[in-house]
Amino acid sequence: MGKSRLVILAVFIIKYLAYNGLLNAQSYKLVPVANWDKYDEGSVNKTRYNSCWGYTDIDSSEYAIVGGQDSIIILNISQPSNIKRVSSIYSGTKGCNNREFKTYAQFAFFSEDKCSNSAKFVIADLRDISKNIVSYTVLPDSIVARVHTIHIYKNYMYLIGAGRYIKDKNSGINVFEQLPLVIIDIANPLKYKVVQVYTQANFANIEEAHDIFMYKSFAFISCGPDGLYIYDLKLTSSPKLIQHIDIYPDLGYNHSSFVDTIGGYLYFTEETEGKRIKCYDINNILKGINTDYSLVSLFGFRPENAGLTHNMFPITDSLLYTSNYLDGVVLWNIKNPEQPKLFANYDTYPENDQFPNDDRYKNFNGVWNMYPYFNSNNVLAVDMTHGVFLFQLQKTNSIPISTKKLNFTYTQTEAELLLNFDQKITLQVKNISIYTADGKLVIQTICNENQAKVPLINLKSGVFIVIIQSGTKSSHLKIIR
Fold it and tell me: Contact 183/158 with Cβ under 8 angstroms?
C-alpha cells in the first residue's frame, strides 16, 4: 500500500472522528438504539411496513403502533434492547399499502387506504395494554370505510380523503361515496358522535383532499396537484374559503402541512422528487387582518438529487423532524424560518446510495412515518423495508474518546463481510459504516445480534474502512476488494 494512500486513510479517520463530535463539540447526530424487523405477514412490492405512531400508557411504558401489509402490530419499546410484540390487530383487510394512526386519551384510531380488498376504520381500546390486552371495534362501512389521513385537534377527529358505502336508492345496492372530510367527536371514543359529513358538494373547489391540519377554526387542506386550501370551519355546515395557495415555487403534489402558531408560519411539503418544503408567513390570515401571505423560505434534503419529504413532525418552535423516504429521518433547525438549517439525519435505506443521482430516487422505499414525542426522547421511525427503528439525538461528543474496543472477529469473502461479536454485546446495537479511502460513505447498517453479514457484492475494487460503534466502544478495520 503506497504512502499517499496511507496519508489519505489517516486523514479520513481524523475527519470521521471530527464528524462524530470527538473533535467538534457543536455537532449532533441521530444514533440508532434499536431495529426490529420481524413482521412476516403479506408483502406488496417487497414493502412490508408503512406508517407508525406512538403511545405511552399510564405506567409510562412506551409503545409503537406499526402498519403492516395484512395487520397492525403493537410493540412494547420501553426497553429498546428487548422490544416485545404486544398485539396484532386484524381488520379483515389484506395487502394494505396505506395505513394511518393517531391516539387520543387511552384509545387509538387506525385507518386504511389502497388495499387489496375493502378498507376499514378501527378504534382500539388501550386501557389494558399493560396486560397485553387490546380490544378493538371496526366501524360500520356506512359511517366510514376508507380514510387516507387522520388528524386530531382537541376532542375532534378529522378524517380526510374518506369514503363510505351507502345504499343506492334506485338499485338498492351499496355503492361507494367519496367524502372529502368527516368530523367525529371523540370526547368519549366508545360513544363517538359524527359531527359533520362533508360531501363533494361542500368543497366544490377541491378535487382531491389528501391531508388536513387544524388550528382554531382554520382548516389547512393539502390537495395534491391543486396546492393547499385554507377554510374556516367555524360554521361546520358551511365551510368558508379563506385562501387558495396554488401558485408557488417547486409546486408538486401538496402532501401535508402544519402551522407554527407562535411565529405564525405555515409549512407544507410536496411528495414529489426534488421539491422543497415551503414556509409561508400567514400572520395576517391567522389574525383576521386580511388573506395575504408571503413566502419566507424553501428548504429540503438533497433536492438537487431529487430527494423528497413525506411528513413533518415539529417538536418545538425550533426543531422539525421530517420523514424523507429513501433519505430516512431528517431533523431541521427552524429557529430562523428564513434560513432553516440541517441539524441531524440518519439514512435507514442506504441501498439506493449506490446508484447515480438520476436513478437514486426511482421508488418509494425508506421512512414513511415517524413519532418523536416520547418522554424518553426516543424517536420512532419505520422503514418500509427494514422495519422499526428507535433513535436518540445526541451531541456527537457524547461518545468520548476511549481506548475501549469492540471484541469481534471477522472473515471476508467476495460476496460479504461476516462480523462475529462478543456475546456480552449481543443485545447492544452495533452501527456499521463502510467508507471509501477518500471518505465517501457507501454502506451503512445496524445490527443487534451477535453476528452481522454485510453484503459487499456491489462494491467496486479498492480499499475501504469499516467503522463499528456500540455504546462508548468503537473499532475500525481496513478491507480490500
Answer: yes
